[in-house]
């Protein structure tokens, strides 16, 4: 699948702002903007496990673009402006809140381990958890008391974040269910977007199979980064199937050997 291979871009002419495990942020073309570049790096367990998987960044860029565009269209504020190419997006510069917001619909992963709930158990209602973003501490779970006491976010901001999380969960659950995928849980990041003297909380970072647990409705096959975490293999194939079901990809049945083509 040559379309998933990395392509050389003149990134050395841009000023690098930040590099994370899966993305790089560069200075944008206009004040208040950044360019978000998706890498092919796959990491798990706070980068203790690492591998470069050709094509992952392209797929995450396209899937995240699709989701953020739809969130913008239904009035959920995000940092997303537009996609620039197969690996990059133009985004609004925001002040990232140092919290990972995890919304859980089905018991899986650390929730199953912590509470002894069998993986796959439907939760009585969606549960929202907060984790402090700190790799050195393994992103510990924190309470609203911790968040306000240490000044990571105000009580009003927490209310705004939770309202966003519920709206995003409702949207994603319906979106994926419509294409035969069960949204088990997902991770969301938020940031403060300043517009003059006004500030609002927006959805930031990415929403992709890297940050969601996605199971096929019929088979319960995993279609997310658990394929890497658990050494199941087939990560690119699973992400490609998610993109295909969402209508992001086109398949030419007469030329399957050339691989599917991404819709431009």
From TrEMBL:
Ranges where the SAICAR synthetase/ADE2 N-terminal domain occurs: 17-245
Catalytic activity: 5-amino-1-(5-phospho-D-ribosyl)imidazole-4-carboxylate + L-aspartate + ATP = (2S)-2-[5-amino-1-(5-phospho-beta-D-ribosyl)imidazole-4-carboxamido]succinate + ADP + phosphate + 2 H(+)
Pfam families: SAICAR_synt
Record's keyword terms, sorted: ATP-binding, Ligase, Nucleotide-binding, Purine biosynthesis
Record bears the keyword Coiled coil: no
Entries under InterPro entries matching the protein: SAICAR_synt/ADE2_N, SAICAR_synt_PurC, SAICAR_synth, SAICAR_synthetase, SAICAR_synthetase_CS
Pathway: Purine metabolism; IMP biosynthesis via de novo pathway; 5-amino-1-(5-phospho-D-ribosyl)imidazole-4-carboxamide from 5-amino-1-(5-phospho-D-ribosyl)imidazole-4-carboxylate: step 1/2
MF-aspect GO terms: ATP binding; phosphoribosylaminoimidazolesuccinocarboxamide synthase activity
GO cellular component labels: cytosol
GO biological process: 'de novo' IMP biosynthetic process; cobalamin biosynthetic process
Database matches in NCBIfam families: purC
Listed name of the protein: Phosphoribosylaminoimidazole-succinocarboxamide synthase
């Amino acid at each position: 699948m040559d379309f998933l291979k990395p392509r050389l871009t003149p990134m050395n002419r841009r000023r690098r702002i930040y590099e994370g495990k899966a993305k790089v942020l560069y200075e944008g073309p206009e004040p208040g903007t950044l360019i978000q570049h998706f890498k092919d790096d796959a990491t798990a367990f706070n980068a203790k496990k690492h591998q470069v998987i050709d094509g992952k960044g392209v797929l995450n860029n396209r899937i995240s673009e699709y989701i953020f565009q739809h969130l913008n269209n239904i009035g959920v504020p995000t940092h997303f402006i537009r996609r620039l190419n197969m690996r990059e997006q133009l985004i609004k510069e925001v002040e990232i809140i140092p919290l990972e917001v995890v919304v859980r619909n089905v018991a899986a992963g650390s929730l199953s381990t912590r509470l002894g709930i069998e993986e796959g158990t439907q939760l009585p209602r969606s549960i929202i958890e907060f984790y402090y973003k700190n790799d050195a501490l393994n992103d510990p779970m924190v309470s609203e008391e911790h968040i306000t006491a240490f000044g990571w976010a105000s009580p009003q901001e927490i209310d705004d974040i939770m309202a966003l999380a519920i709206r995003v969960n409702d949207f994603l659950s319906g979106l994926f269910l419509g294409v035969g995928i069960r949204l088990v849980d997902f991770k969301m990041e938020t940031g403060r977007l300043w517009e003059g003297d006004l500030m609002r909380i927006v959805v930031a970072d990415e929403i992709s199979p890297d940050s969601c647990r996605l199971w096929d409705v019929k088979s319960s096959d995993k279609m997310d980064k658990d394929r890497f975490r658990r050494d199941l293999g087939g990560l690119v194939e699973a992400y490609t199937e998610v993109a295909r079901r969402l209508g992001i990809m086109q398949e030419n049945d007469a030329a399957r050997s050339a691989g599917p083509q991404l819709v431009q």
